[in-house]
Amino acid sequence: MGHKEPMTIANALRQIQERRLILPAIQREYVWKPSQVIRVFDSVMRGYPVGSFLSWRVMPDTISDFKFYGFMKDYSAFDNRHNPVIDIPTDREVVAILDGQQRLTSLNIGLRGTYAYKNHGGWANKSWSYPERRLFLNLAGEAPENELGLKYHFQFLTDADVEAARDDETKIWLPVADVFGASEMSSLIQLLAKHGVGNDPVASGLVSTLWDAIHKTASLHFYEETEQDIERVLDIFVRVNSGGTVLSYSDLLLSIATAQWEGDARAAVHGLVDELNNTGNGFSFSRDTVLKAGLVLNDVRDISFKVKNFTAANMAQLEARWGTLSASLQVAVGLLSDFGLSGGSLTADSVLIPVAYYVHHRKLDHSYRQSPNTRDDRMALRSWVLRSLIVRGIWGSGLDTLLRDVREVIRSEGAETFPAAAIERAMAARGKSLAVTDALVDDVLSLEYGRPRTFAVLAALFPHVDTRNQFHVDHIFPGSLLEQKGLRRLTKDDGTPQFTPDEIDDLTERKNQLPNLELLPGLENIGKLAEVPANWVAANYATSEERSSFLERNALPAQLPHGAAEFDSFFRARRELLEARIRTTLRPAGRDYVSQSPSVLALDEELAGGDDVD
């Protein structure tokens, strides 16, 4: 490995334009934020070193055996986050960057391209929330006081931003790309005249400083590897990327897979992740989870993220089976959505993996999610998934061991039905028991509104709820009627305060706890608004039989509160009912598992609006 002659930023960017400076497929994608781009430009103008770069000179004979990407120029957080694949002629050598991609890409974006990031408060799924921005330098003076210690005032702006500042004397915005385009001194003079700052010593000084940093100062220092052994290059890549913004496990696996797959591994994985996350109300699965699932479903013996496990044979097998594995993951995510889960309520993404393995092992498709013949099996799977999300620590440490054990049970006992009891015995042997203990009961009863586990608990405790429909976590007694200000205004008949300060604190604390929560269909919850439960139930269930059925089904006491004065007794009674239900409904699976009876299901369908649960 040798040290090359340093080069200017302009020279490096011209080599990027000519595709003589490229990225190997093992590189991850661009991850820097706009603030990081601005900081590197500030460092460049101040003459600070921007770090050394590690490159790999790739000879013509090696080029055809490898895959390469171009540098990002016009980045969009909405729809252009992936580096373009490029075809390199095999009659010439090229230089691939092993370390320093983020810095070079930032320079390329700032000097040649655009950066589109989401407006604050904008819609994440709307293109207009991501306006195209270019990097500008304020020629009116140095940066205002700031916590980052920036000396120069760089900013990413839209054309509208620049136009809006046209009459602001403190803003003279110069597109940084214009400085890159002025490659000769004569062009620099014309640039100063074009922007009307040729006679302004401050402005012309700033432009000249930036021009020198880009075109004159050889500030980029490269160390170059010339060996053509890909294994050596991979080893170097892993070592140099152990610092800075550290590669995630999926970055490394995806990098190596991309280098070894015949097809485009990066596009395949990103496409699948996006598709899974767009299921139902949306999820937030990472590449880590999806790629770990790939190893598990592919029956790779050691599923840990270690470089030695990323063999060419494993990667080739993963690529060959990717279509089938993807289909199984899509069915599995569909099931999680059917169970009422989404990104906001799924407390452990890893639960997707055993569900997908079960789907894959039995070669199930989306019909499994709907068929009346698979209802009991779905209920067993649903119960296990929800209970595993409720008990703390199940999907934490020791994950690889847990996944291997569950995989082995499914492989040996899951040919026809989901082997919940056998899986739970294997989990208990690893210290991952789903047993209902006093500590678990107390933990569950203390869950509050808005916590991710709360939905899973309510869905597990009330399996009659068809979570394929839109259900809301609802306050049984309206939270708005238990606000401190309102409680302080309540008085008894003799005019004294209804509640002491301590009682008010207690009521406001308990209003969001599990005994005051239930699942209601979305439209029904919206219609309920702030009506007290006694009045709401009486208005919505005409007969005593209907009311009794509703109360029993939702573990509600016979006496519902009419006002805040009755909330304490209601809360205590509901807590007792929930405790009993927790101890029976959340108990470990066994041979006595029984699904809901048709009569109960039919009544729940009627309350949910008549939709067929199958």
Structure at a glance:
This protein has 614 residues and is α+β, with helices and mostly antiparallel strands. It contains 27 helices and 14 strands. 35% of the residues are buried.
How does this structure look, described?
The chain has 614 residues and is α+β, with helices and mostly antiparallel strands. It has 3 domains: 2-222, no CATH class; 248-434, no CATH class; 463-607, no CATH class. 47% of the residues lie in helices and 9% in strands. The chain is built from 27 helices and 14 strands. A 7-stranded mixed sheet has the order 1-12-3-7-2-4-6. The radius of gyration is 31 Å and the shape is flat. The model is unreliable at 591-614 (pLDDT under 50).
Give me the secondary-structure topology.
Blueprint (H helix, E strand, L loop, with lengths): L1 E2 L5 H9 L3 E4 L9 H12 L6 E7 L1 H4 L4 E2 L4 E3 L8 E2 L7 E6 L1 H12 L1 E3 L17 E5 L15 E4 L1 H6 L8 E3 H6 L3 H10 L6 H16 L4 E5 L4 H11 L8 H12 L4 H13 L9 H11 L14 H9 L1 H17 L13 H11 L12 H16 L8 H15 L6 H10 L8 H8 L6 H10 L9 E5 L8 H6 L11 H10 L6 E5 H7 L4 H8 L3 H10 L13 H19 L12 H10 L7
Parallel strand pairs: 2-7, 3-12, 5-8
Antiparallel strand pairs: 1-12, 2-4, 3-7, 4-6, 9-10, 9-11, 13-14
Helix pairs in contact: 2-4, 10-12, 11-14, 12-14, 12-15, 14-15, 15-17, 16-20, 17-18
Cα radius of gyration in angstroms: 31 Å
Class by alpha and beta content: alpha+beta
Q: Tally the helices: what do you get? A: 27
Low-pLDDT ranges = 591-614
Backbone shape: flat
What is the mean predicted local confidence, pLDDT?
Answer: 85
Span from first to last CA?
A: 64 Å
Q: What is the number of beta strands?
A: 14
Percent range of helical residues:
40-55%
Give the count of structural domains.
3
Strand order of the largest sheet: 1-12-3-7-2-4-6
Proportion of strand residues:
5-15%
Query: Main β-sheet: number of strands, strand sense, barrel status?
Result: 7 strands, mixed
